[in-house]
């Protein structure tokens, strides 16, 4: 009975991991096409960053855990591609405070929150504003994403498929070891998530390249 339950959980987790919205990939490919036509000198960096994203998604996603350094590298690639794609319409600030580079996390754990900010966030004035902070120490990981949005789009961001999937993943992977807060600030028109995880200090496998 226990083996059957574990198998079911693994199948459910694999399904949830694969629920990655493809809109970013299509948008990025369109951006690369545009850069190749008009700004060819910047195209190689775009391709390298996209290649890094795809490599991570294809070869790391099936591992139970990866070093936090790999996860943050993936986040940085994603953020840089969005900065290039959205250009002047984006005002973004991000900071990774890495006091412990040895902890392990489930791969693709944080990216749905960032995807959610870009997909459902809306411009206030003439810019979409996004703030991303990640702090890792010996005891916990604290992750924050905040973005501007309009009140009429509130329900689509807080109740979307991406956030529902990540809630399920957290229940499976970090039972009693995580705390997720989702906040809609109607007055200031921003959407904020805060995720706290207890860290894992040991590796359960060797990385293969």
Automatic annotation (TrEMBL):
A GO molecular function for this record?
phosphorelay sensor kinase activity
One of the Pfam families matching this protein, by short name: His_kinase
Entry annotated with the keyword Kinase:
yes
Q: Which residues form the Signal transduction histidine kinase internal region domain?
A: 12-90
Quote the SUPFAM superfamilies the UniProt record gives.
ATPase domain of HSP90 chaperone/DNA topoisomerase II/histidine kinase
Q: Which UniProt keywords apply?
A: Kinase, Transferase
Identification of the protein by name = LytS/YehU family sensor histidine kinase
Origin species = Aureibacter tunicatorum
């Amino acid at each position: 009975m226990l083996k059957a339950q574990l198998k079911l959980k693994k199948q459910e987790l694999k399904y949830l991991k694969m629920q990655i919205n493809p809109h970013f990939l299509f948008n990025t490919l369109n951006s690369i096409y545009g850069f190749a036509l008009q700004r060819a000198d910047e195209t190689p960096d775009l391709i390298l960053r996209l290649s890094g994203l795809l490599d991570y998604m294809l070869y790391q996603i099936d591992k139970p855990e990866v070093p936090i350094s790999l996860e943050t590298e993936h986040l940085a690639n994603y953020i840089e591609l969005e900065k290039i794609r959205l250009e002047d319409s984006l005002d973004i600030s991000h900071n990774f405070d890495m006091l412990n580079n040895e902890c392990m996390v489930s791969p693709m754990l944080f990216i749905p929150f960032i995807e959610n900010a870009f997909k459902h966030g809306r411009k206030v004035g003439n810019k979409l504003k996004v703030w991303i902070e990640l702090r890792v120490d010996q005891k916990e990981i604290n992750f924050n994403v905040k973005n501007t949005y309009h009140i009429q789009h509130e329900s689509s961001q807080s109740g979307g498929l991406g956030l529902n999937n990540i809630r399920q993943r957290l229940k499976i992977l970090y039972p009693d070891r995580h705390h997720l807060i989702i906040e809609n600030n109607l007055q200031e028109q921003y959407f904020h998530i805060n995720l706290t995880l207890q860290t894992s200090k040991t590796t359960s496998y060797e990385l293969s390249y």
